[in-house]
Amino acid sequence: MQFGLIYHHQLPRPWAEDSEERLYNESLEQIELADRLGFDYAWATEHHFLEEYSHSAAPEVFLAAAAARTSNIRLAHGIVSLPPAVNHPVRVAERLATLDLISGGRVDFGTGAGSSQLELEAFGVDRDTKKDEWREALEVVTRLLTETPFTGHQGTYVNVPPRNVVPKPKQKPHPPLWMACSARTTIETAARHGIGALSFSFVSPEEAKEWVDTYYRIIESDACVPIGKTVNPNFSVVLPFLCHQDEETALDRGLDGAHFFSYSLMHYYISGQHRPGTTDVWQEFLKNRESVGLTREPVKPAADEEPSPEAKAMMAQITSLRRGIGTPEQITDLVRRYEAAGVDQIIFSVQIGKNRHEHICESLELFASEVLPHFADRRDEVDTAKQDRLAVAVKEALTRVRTNTADVSDYVISPELGA
After folding, report:
1. Cα 325–330–332 angle (5° rounding)?
2. 252-298 residue pLDDT tens
3. How confident is the model at residue 419 (pLDDT cuts 50, 70, 90)?
4. Domains of the chain as residue ranges with CATH
5. By 3-state DSSP, what share of the chain in percent is helix, strand and coil, each rounded to 5?
6. pLDDT (tens digit, 9 = 90+) per residue, 76-123?
7. Mean pLDDT of 118-137
8. Stretch 193-201: mean pLDDT, rounded?
9. Mapping DSSP to helix (H, G, I), strand (E, B) and coil, where does residue 236 land?
């Protein structure tokens, strides 16, 4: 089991002049602390225009700053938005390789197609084609990182002539690939492409087991055709997180942040009416939280009332928000259940809502001293068993990697003199 932190850079209103500067500096201090404590990953999201929910518009810059302040923790994109109108594949490859070099080969490359209308519309991305754009762009990026020279690509969404992209990454053939997943169908897609599954749904250990079993069943089948040049068989889950010796204190410090995360997510992706630069999501959260069940004590149906499927789904979602908030004993038990389900990494959302920097740091230290040792001692044994189990399947999957045989040895570029 590995442990990571994910940064959306949430910043509920009201904002002071230095709010964003303080937010970034505190996040970097948390990652620096996590590196010293033995956490495995620091993930950074990419979002645009999502006020309060995510001020993480340039994760490559943030991760580069984290690289300069850390030594061991892996620095991961969770995710880069790959439709070419948002990030051209050449620029993605160049930035990724540079970050991999300056971090000493500590980069993981999570990818996705994007989903909020606020972002897709602004960049001119068609919702009907975004998944195809993601797939084509990812294939081009992995070729740009590994081919010398890149022999060119003429596709539906990307056209790049033969060029040699420099620099190349430290990790060979390229950094590990991941895909954002929010449902069983996308988890199956990740497995078919031989890449890690970043499950952003707050699933229970029991739900996770079904998804993990499906994921690894495909990884070990002929259906796994790597989209990159290697296979990254890993399954992760994301949870809101706050650890304290006293459960009530943990809830006092962490639950509002988890609730705001859920509310602001629904605001941008499901039900919100947003006026750029004007809508106060935090105030709407405070006003409406009770009506959507985001309270300290969840509203339960009467004993003689059969809840609707929608109500059951809402209750399950609300319950999931407090799953990673509790005492070291409670969180240790939770991690053991995810481990038994076959989950490879738990990624904690710590900097959400108005969670306080000092409380986050205290929580990380407590987790590292009282939870992490239970799993660190047997990590090598578990990893070795997993590698042995998958060795044949991965070897066979690599024989299905698509190879490029184009010959551009006669391709010459001449300068346009006098231009």
Report:
1. 105
2. 999 999 999 999 999 999 999 999 999 999 999 999 999 999 998 86
3. very low
4. 2-398 (3.20.20.30)
5. 45, 15, 40
6. 999 999 999 999 999 999 999 999 999 999 999 999 999 899 999 999
7. 97
8. 95
9. strand
Measure the CA angle with vertex 215, ends 213 and 216; round to 5°: 70
Residue 180 Cα to chain centre, angstroms: 6
Alpha-carbon dihedral of residues 110, 113, 119, 123, nearest 10 degrees? 110
Place of tokens 């069943």: 217
* In contact, 239 and 202? CB cutoff 8 Å: yes
Between residues 32 and 312, the one the model is more confident about: 32
Rg value, the chain, Cα: 22
DSSP state of 366: H
For helices 205-219 and 379-398, the axis angle rounded to 10 degrees is 40
What is the helix (H) or strand (E) element at residue 22, kind and residue range?
helix 19-37
Which of 25-29, 203-207, 234-238, 395-399 shows the lowest per-residue confidence on average (mean pLDDT)? 203-207
Distance, in Å, from the CA atom of 125 to the CA atom of 134, rounded to the nearest integer, reads: 11
Angstrom distance (rounded) from CA 244 to CA 255: 12
DSSP string across 242-282 = EE-SSHHHHHHHHHHHHHHHHHHHHIIIII----TTT--HH
Sequence-distant (6+) residues with CB within 8 A of 130 are: 83, 113, 114, 115, 120
Helices (H), 38-112: 59-69, 89-102
Report how far residue 405's alpha carbon sits from residue 400's, in angstroms, rounded to the nearest whole number: 15
**Which amino acid, residue 178?**
W
Q: How far apart, in Å, do the first and last CA atoms of the chain sit? A: 58
DSSP secondary structure string, 158-192? Answer: -EE-SB--SSPPSSSS-SPEEEEE-SHHHHHHHHH
Q: How many residues comprise the chain? A: 419
Residue 400 CB neighbours (<10 A):
12
Give me the long-range contacts of 215-221 (CB less than 8 A, separation at least 24).
215/187, 215/188, 215/190, 215/191, 216/191, 216/342, 216/390, 217/191, 218/188, 218/191, 218/192, 219/191, 219/194, 219/390, 219/393, 219/397, 220/390, 220/393, 221/393
For tokens 């407090």, what's the residue?
322
Q: Assign residue 9 a region (left: φ > 0; alpha: ψ between -120 and 50; beta: otherwise).
A: left
Q: pTM of the predicted model, to two decimals?
A: 0.95
What is the C-alpha to C-alpha distance for residues 217 and 184, in angstroms, rounded to an integer?
A: 13
Neighbouring CB atoms inside 10 A of 65's CB total 15
